[in-house]
Amino acid sequence: MGFLTAIFLGLITILVYLVLVSLIFKKEIKATFERDPAATSLPEVLLTYSGLQAIIFYRIAHRLLKMKLPFLPRLISQFARWVTGIEIHPGAVIGTSLFIDHGMGIVIGETSVIGNNVTLFQGVTLGGTGKERGKRHPTLGNNIVVGGGAKILGNVNIGDNVQIGANAVVIRNVPPNSTVVGIPGRIVKKEGKKVSGISLDHTSLPDPIAQHLDRLQDEIDHIESEIKDHHEKKSMEDS
Ligand SMILES: CC(C)(COP(=O)(O)OP(=O)(O)OC[C@H]1O[C@@H](n2cnc3c(N)ncnc32)[C@H](O)[C@@H]1OP(=O)(O)O)[C@@H](O)C(=O)NCCC(=O)NCCS
To answer: Which of 17, 122, 193, 211 has its CA at a distance of 20 to 30 angstroms from the CA of residue 159?
Structure first.
């Protein structure tokens, strides 16, 4: 086979791949154009958006997992992680029109469930707490935005139309139509209205190390006072 024939066949293969991807993943591509003002052309989205590539790998791995093929689904997901920086366990269940923006550092755990029209930014974790077995990852409804760096941990339910702020850590269920921010995640808006009486003053959060040191200091003070009492008692007895 000549050099030119090889190039020609390579180009045809790429073209067929691009056409197939744009047909099969048209909802995800549409979501990309709708939600990313920086997306300008179809070839750009198909070839340079790591979020879309991660979803393509995930769909293949998930299909193979459902066919009960051993090892290969995990191999594909780890390869995808290596290429895109996005780790989606093949066992996760993901709806349509998922948009992953920037992507790097995203982890989607094995028993996660994601509805339709969800947007995830870089650094999002849908993880377990390390304590549970079985269903141990979050379930996200439809039309949800999870901001950069946010962590949603454990078997919690995130309702439809929820926004989760950048860097929030969510460990409890979130009702539909609400906005959650902070660590631990607190609802700051519900049904479009601000929720009052909620402190976002993160500097006042309890510091477990300081609390531990305080307890140790209390115990030392207590022991010191007991020793002092004991010495006083002994010197009274001696005199
Ligand atoms: C939470 C978010 C969705 C905003 O929702 P919103 O409905 O517009 O809410 P508001 O901007 O009115 O903020 C509500 C309150 O939460 C606070 N807040 C907003 N985002 C926050 C965050 N990420 N962390 C902590 N507090 C936050 C605001 O200061 C405000 O507090 P106040 O009521 O005391 O003034 C948005 O701030 C966010 O974090 N989006 C993620 C975007 C992202 O990750 N982009 C990555 C691009 S690369």
So the answer is: 122
